[in-house]
From TrEMBL:
Residues 10-109 form the Pyrroline-5-carboxylate reductase catalytic N-terminal domain. Coiled coil: none annotated. Keywords: NADP, Oxidoreductase. HAMAP family: P5C_reductase. This is Pyrroline-5-carboxylate reductase. It comes from Coemansia spiralis.
């Protein structure tokens, strides 16, 4: 159920994978199909979403947001590519100013000030509440993590509305205190799945070199990563990850040998510097996309 007194009308601009992950979660938990609308430019994708989910899908963004005779949009989720988001937001700016729905952006690297500028008609504050949401791709399999930042126009009720949307794609989600915190989230969880894919890829390849079949090596590595993550999430808050690692690392044992070699090869430092590179790139993307 919605956190408000009546179910929310949620409109998605962009009908890609992340949109589908959210809307399928909403519908599975009983959200009315009549209160979900999607705007998607590709005809084949439009038909897929209509046939699969039984929802209204439009080719025109403004029609989706303000469909005549339909409930007014409470939440508009921007799920388009960063390169086109400026054009998209300018195109629906008038209806956003008139109806002032909660705008939730899952567009990476685009700052709230730029959304506000694109929405404003004359440079004055438009008063449209905006949330930046940083999800990650495991949302597609129900194992997502996300961070969120709200601008000053977002009410407590609208924060709850955001969480209502986010809980359908993320098992762990948190509000951050500053917009730069969204970039921090990106460096940890937004881009984080690729870090673990790299580790699993390396473990799989070495397993093959040691004599295992590729399928066995891959599944062993993946299940080990999943199990280790579960142990971290289930551990008491007083027990940090270093303690968990030490518990499975017997002095002079096999795990100790592996960990010591990885430390010698700079694995922890490499991960940290990679995360910093991600964080720096987030900041530079914000500058680039803000000029659109």
């Amino acid at each position: 159920m919605s956190t408000s007194s009546s179910p929310l009308c949620i409109v998605f601009i962009g009908g890609g994978n992340m949109c589908e992950a959210i809307l399928s979660g909403l519908l599975k938990t009983g959200h009315p199909k009549s209160l979900v609308r999607v705007s998607e430019p590709w005809e084949q994708r439009q038909e897929y979403l209509r046939e699969t989910y039984g929802i209204s899908v439009f080719a025109d963004n403004n029609e989706a947001v303000s469909e005549a005779g339909s409930p007014r949009a409470d939440v508009v989720v921007l799920a388009v590519k960063p390169q086109v988001v400026g054009q998209v937001v300018r195109g629906i700016a008038s209806v956003l100013r008139n109806t002032r729905p909660l705008v939730v952006s899952i567009v990476a690297g685009v700052a709230i000030k730029d959304f506000a500028r694109w929405i404003s008609a004359d440079g004055s504050p438009a008063g449209v509440p905006i949330v930046r949401l940083m999800p990650n791709t495991p949302a597609l399999v129900g194992e997502g993590a996300a961070g969120m930042f709200a601008d000053a126009d977002v009410s407590a009720e609208q924060r709850a509305q955001t969480e209502y949307v986010v809980c359908n794609i993320a098992k762990e989600y948190f509000w951050v205190d500053s917009e730069s915190g969204v970039d921090d989230v990106c460096s940890v969880s937004g881009s984080g799945p690729a870090y673990f894919f790299l580790v699993i890829e390396a473990m799989e390849q070495k397993g093959v070199e040691l004599g295992l079949s590729r399928q066995v090596a891959r599944r062993l590595a993946a299940q080990t990563a999943l199990g280790a993550a579960r142990m971290v999430l289930d551990a008491p808050v007083t027990e940090d990850v270093a303690t968990l690692r030490q518990k499975v690392t017997s002095p002079n044992g096999t795990t100790h040998a592996a960990i010591q070699q990885m430390i010698k090869d700079g694995v922890p430092e490499g991960i940290a510097s990679g995360m910093q590179a991600c964080r720096d790139r987030c900041a530079s993307l914000s500058d680039e996309f803000g000029k659109l």
